[in-house]
Write a structure and sequence with these properties.
With 441 residues, the chain is of the alpha+beta class. The chain is built from five helices and eleven strands; from the N terminus they run αββββββββααβαβαβ.
């Protein structure tokens, strides 16, 4: 029939045009049905008409929504009059749930033909071919991922006079197939490791935006061509640290300092070191502490910052050990009579002159004069006597020109004897003075 050929042609064109994107694993579904037709309206036979085959092609779109086309052929009897029936439709289908039994709604627009074999001119061109709106419900009973049994019933209303409104029911099987290519890169989603982003076949569907041979999902710098060893990034300063991990990407540095340099090797990176060419502590922002007198003791710790001293004396000067040895050598020649603190005798005074000379030649450093006594007398008395002996030496040295600022006294009584207190000679040796360096605190 001429009209039937027109319908088949329209159906084929519609099938070709259904090609929209989706996210379903098997987006396409082909259905084969048998169908029944029940005429609706006045002056119609209310019986069921068993039609011929029907076929459908469906494409899943998104979230349970599909688009499709269907064609059906049948034979309808109304009282004693027989009609060849055919239809071709486009439709939308909405699944109401997921699972092994899926109810759905269907609606669409198409063409229906009730032909009695008489040619009639009309819009298509026959008035027997009618524009048709339809809608209904259906159920899909899924046997597997690919196969289902479908039951569908729709009400179809026609816009031409030479036709019938009718119910059409389909019963048949559907087979799902095809492999989605969501990103349209030519790699099916089943094989595409980046199914949502267009990519290249050689990278299993993943893109390589910068063309460095490293796919974007593995490339830490997908827009800048880099090296595999740097995970697709570059190392601008060639220090072995990729730019994204390099705090100082334009200055060669070390891994220890996240790619930043430490020019003076003081453990402080140049980025925060205010004296990057001179080593200094962190607490002074990488700069060395000031040392006004250059004695190696920083001013912050130097109690004599304008005088060269020693670290053991908190930056203050002290007499060298060899000088102290010489002073104590002379000090061992200063003798005191028993129970006395008087400076007596020419030789003792000459010794004190020698001590004064040494101190004059070594003007830096202060002394503590320690006084001692023999074991004669009570302990408390001997302590007082030893202090007086030290004071006597101090007064004499001051009188002959030694600065009083350099001298201090202490008394130890009969402690630390050098001789045997049970013998006269030993007691004489113990009546003495000694010298030690005065430490600044």
């Amino acid at each position: 029939m001429k009209n039937l050929k027109h319908l088949l042609l329209l159906s084929a064109l519609f099938f070709i045009q259904v090609s929209l994107a989706q996210n379903q694993k098997n987006p396409w579904s082909f259905s084969a049905y048998t169908n029944t037709i029940i005429l609706i309206g006045d002056n119609v036979d209310k019986g069921i008409n068993f039609g011929g085959p029907a076929f459908g092609l469906t494409r899943h779109l998104t979230n349970g929504l599909s688009i499709g086309s269907q064609i059906s052929i049948g034979n309808v009897t109304n009282f004693n009059e027989s009609f060849d029936y055919s239809s071709v439709d486009g439709f939308l289908r909405l699944n109401l749930r997921q699972g092994s039994i899926v109810p759905y709604l269907i609606g669409g627009y198409g063409l229906s033909l009730f032909s009695d074999g008489v040619e009639r001119k009309g819009f298509f061109p026959s008035s027997e071919t009618s524009r048709t709106l339809f809608g209904g419900i259906g159920f899909g009973f899924y046997l597997s991922e690919y196969a289902s049994i479908n039951l569908q019933s729709t009400y179809r209303t026609m816009n031409e006079s030479d036709g019938f409104d009718h119910f059409q029911t389909f019963v048949g099987v559907a087979y799902s197939f095809g492999s989605e290519d969501s990103d349209k890169d030519g790699v099916p989603d089943k094989k595409d490791k980046c199914p949502e982003i267009p990519g290249l076949k050689e990278y299993e569907g993943c893109p390589d935006t910068d063309g460095d041979g490293i796919t974007d999902k593995e490339d830490k710098c997908p827009e800048i061509a880099g090296k595999e060893e740097f995970k697709g990034c570059v190392d601008t300063d060639n220090d072995g640290i990729a730019d994204p991990d390099d705090t100082c990407p334009n200055e060669a540095g070390t891994i220890e300092f996240n790619g930043c340099p430490d020019s003076d090797s003081d453990g402080i990176t140049d980025t925060v070191d205010k004296c990057k060419d001179i080593a200094g502590p962190l607490e002074n922002n990488g700069c060395p502490w000031a040392d006004s007198d250059g004695d190696g003791v920083p001013d912050k710790d130097d109690l004599c910052k304008d005088e060269i001293g020693t670290s053991s004396n908190n930056g203050c000067p002290e007499l060298p050990s060899e000088i102290m040895a010489a002073l104590n050598e002379f000090g061992s020649r200063i003798y005191f009579p028993a129970n006395s603190f008087q400076i007596m005798g020419k030789k003792t005074k000459e010794v004190l002159e020698d001590i004064k000379k040494i101190l004059s030649e070594n003007p830096q450093g202060a002394l503590i004069i320690e006084g001692y006594a023999s074991s004669d007398g009570e302990e408390d008395y001997n302590i007082s006597l030893s202090i007086e002996r030290a004071r006597a030496v101090m007064r004499y040295l001051i009188n002959i020109g030694v600065s009083p600022d350099r001298l201090e006294v202490e008394g130890y009584g009969e402690q630390n004897p050098l001789g045997d207190n049970s013998q006269p000679q030993g007691r004489a040796v113990n009546r003495r003075v000694q010298f030690k360096t005065k430490k600044v605190k």
